[in-house]
Amino acid sequence: MNSQDKGSDKFIDSMTTYLGIGTQMFSQPWLLNPTIVRLTSYHKVMTENAAYMTSFSNELINNKMKEYRERTKDPFPTKEHSDSFNKRDQPLLIDSIIEMIGNNECFFSKKEIIGEINNIIMAGMDTTANSLSLTMMLLGFHQDVQRKVQEELDAVFGDDVERSVSMEDLNNLKYTEQVIKESLRLYPAVPFVPRNTTEDIKITNYTIPKGCDVLFGIYSLHRNPNIYPNPDEFDPENFSPERSKGRHPYSFIPFSGGFRKCVGYKYAMLQMKIVLATVLRHFTVHPACDIKEMDRWDFNFTLKLVNGSKVKLISRNMVKGNK
């Protein structure tokens, strides 16, 4: 959607501010009361930022709709118009939605479409980049694990460090996937997900009534000692076939679960594998800060380190040359 290319810095800032206030409201439940929150400065800030995000997404839809009309009214579209829709093997989600609207096949209102666009941007804003940074830091602090990843990469790619990563390669990177999953277990990009109950739910001696907003604590679930021995330790063997066997499928939900699971979870996993496979074939990661930094968090909808992720990269060729 090129949302990061066309003057959308304000959109990202607005979304960050909106999410930050929303997070604070969850930690102060009385602010979830509409009457009370209107008496605070939060209400004005959230309203202004929500209005800007809606305006941005509305303009995006209008521009895409204009492109679509120009393309479809001309049986021989210009290369410029053709490229905007056809330069990818698979169309963007927004393009698919616009085509559905143009063909009168879309059953969503414009308000619902804007909401979904905002949700998609929100979910993918920096979650994958943040998870990759944390994985790099963990590998820097656990050189033994990093060596095993590099041994796997060497076995798959041989000496050809420049070869592009294929789908077959990705399927063969079993241990690398275990490392990514263990990183997401310890540090899920989104530590909790909200849901609304559609019926009364009884849990032991408690009943959650229909219509309640509830939070699933992914961070706490992933550190449950009844599921993961030594839950606070970084151990990729937690996701070996032997240990994973018989484990409840919802004991690991870094992308949530069920029908509301993140639609981009497969893409995110592939992206992380590709980046790690590319970087670790060329470099060895070393920490550039104290390991205690990994316990200092800034929680703003997503988990982020207070001082950022700091690593240094040393060329593997340089290391081999010194041996």
UniProtKB/TrEMBL annotation:
It is found in: Endoplasmic reticulum membrane; Microsome membrane. It is a peripheral membrane protein. Its main location: endoplasmic reticulum. Keywords: Endoplasmic reticulum, Heme, Iron, Membrane, Metal-binding, Microsome, Monooxygenase, Oxidoreductase. One of its GO terms (cellular component) is endoplasmic reticulum membrane. Its cofactor is heme. One of its GO terms (molecular function) is heme binding. Heme binds at C262. InterPro entries: Cyt_P450, Cyt_P450_E_grp-I, Cyt_P450_sf, Cytochrome_P450_Monoox. It comes from the Eukaryota. Belongs to the cytochrome P450 family. This is Cytochrome P450.
